[in-house]
User: Fold DUF6536 domain-containing protein from Alternaria arborescens.
Amino acid sequence: MENTKYTPVDSTETNDPSEQKRKSLLPRNEKWQLGIFYAALATSIVCVLNLIITIWAFVTHGMTYGSAVLYEGSCETTKNLNIGVHLIINIFSSAILSGSNYTMQCLSSPTRSEVDDAHARGTWLDIGVPSIRNLRSIAKRRLWIWLLLGVSSIPLHLFYNSVVFTTLSGNSYFVYITNEAWLSSSDSLIVPDSGEYGPLLTELVDKQLWKANQAGSLQRLEPRSCIDAYARSFISARGNLLVITSNSTSSSEAGEIFDYASGGEITITGGQDATNLDPYSWICGDSLKCLKYYKSSKLRHKCMEYEFCDVDALGIRNNPQNWTLNQRKVDYCLSTETEEHCKLRLNAAIAALVIFTNFCKALLIITTYFSTREHLLLGIGDAIVSFLSHPDPVTEGSSLLSKDDATPHQKFSSSSFGPRPFHSSRKRWLAAVSRRRTITIFTTAALSLIICSALLIYASFNMKGAKPSDIWTLGFGQPSENTLITFAGIRRRMIRTAGLLSNVLIANTPQLVLSFIYFSCNAHLTSMLAAREWSSFAKTRKGLRVHTHPRGAQRATYFLQLPWRYSAPMILAGALLHWLASQSIFVVSVEWWANVTIDIEVYLARGSAPSIE
Assistant:
């Protein structure tokens, strides 16, 4: 066979392996460094924006319970603002993490001297793909920057999506069964003590409702409207309620109060005996089958702990004309209207942690831009230029050396591989990816799907009596008493920063998993495109794609291996998945409001204190 002499495309001294062990000053117009520059710029801009927004929030709105209240008012407006803010947060985090990923791949790319050293030891390094195995062979300075960039990503995944969160407004309310005679009486009647809230509180609530009705400040709701208004997880715009029934015309028989009076209060966190009560089971009243076993009104809550009030399944919503409470037909309701107090909060501790991590990332990327002078083999084109200019003596004569011949556990040398015939065969893109990488990504994805399915089944199971289609009626990013996840170790006393951080860590764990899947997919696709680029040279004559000193027909590029038509959709899909995860599993904070104009600290101390779900 006639020997072919290859003319080096780039014969500068910097391609000499002996020169790779010293740093050389590269011009700033190298394309891969331009990518590092853009990564540093994007990360710095996000850091400055985070800092400005945080300072503005606390200077403008002050701080309460370690958080700034960005907005207080309508719960619908709060929900929409929360969705929009989290969309922006995930765009910011995607910009930071994409720049960090780009920088980390550059740092883990080997120089020619590092490749030669590895070959001399009988092993190999990855070129053109994200690599962890390269970390054992690269310079210590690049290794430490790579590790710090990786570690700094963890706080962003775990906390960034919870820096802004909502506080729902839940009204604690009393429900009175009464009649027209009580409404038209000259004075209110003192309701018998329910035993749980004290005689003074019960009397004051009774008098308030009577006076409010006399003043005409109560809103009349027909049975169907009353059910729709109060059959909700959290009541934020309404308070104490009068249920006007027939079957009795004597004012002396009026004024019965449910022992399960605070329909808006449910046990959502706590100790070993934490339960998840249905917050509007009083509506079902006579429809709950278990009530026949609990004749005493003081035991009604026992029944309501075990039987779910489904106003649709029990036919109450669709047949309001047959709605009865305590064997009395409901004619209409008189409802107290209240202001909504839903809030959008920015937590100071989490914001400080995010800004500090963001600053560290920006500093590390800027350090990489100014300090990295080595000629890195970032892609297939860079490797081809280097090895054509200065052939490797270890692999010389092994032109048909394949991936299968160089395994992580097998050392190789030039004497290990003799001449062999060439067999042309079509291979799928998947063949370019190592078996370990393939198993890792599919196993992680499968486990994630299993866990998501388990959580969906858990939530569906808690929606007792609900149909699968009812899941969509819950609303996007909306909390429900049926889908709350409670932990015995997270107690009510941790209602401030400590409790919030504990819940944030739990809620944002899926963000870490999604990021691992994203980086695995990125490495997976990068490996396939690198193999495709290598194989394409056998079919089409074209200039090499290089990242350093393009010569002649060579093409300069700043992206590493994934062109924008692949990387841009991946970044967008990753941001969308992170956003969806933030709206699927999230921290719920609730402030309970007691609609009684008495000393709440004495009688309902928990009424206005926020509890962290």
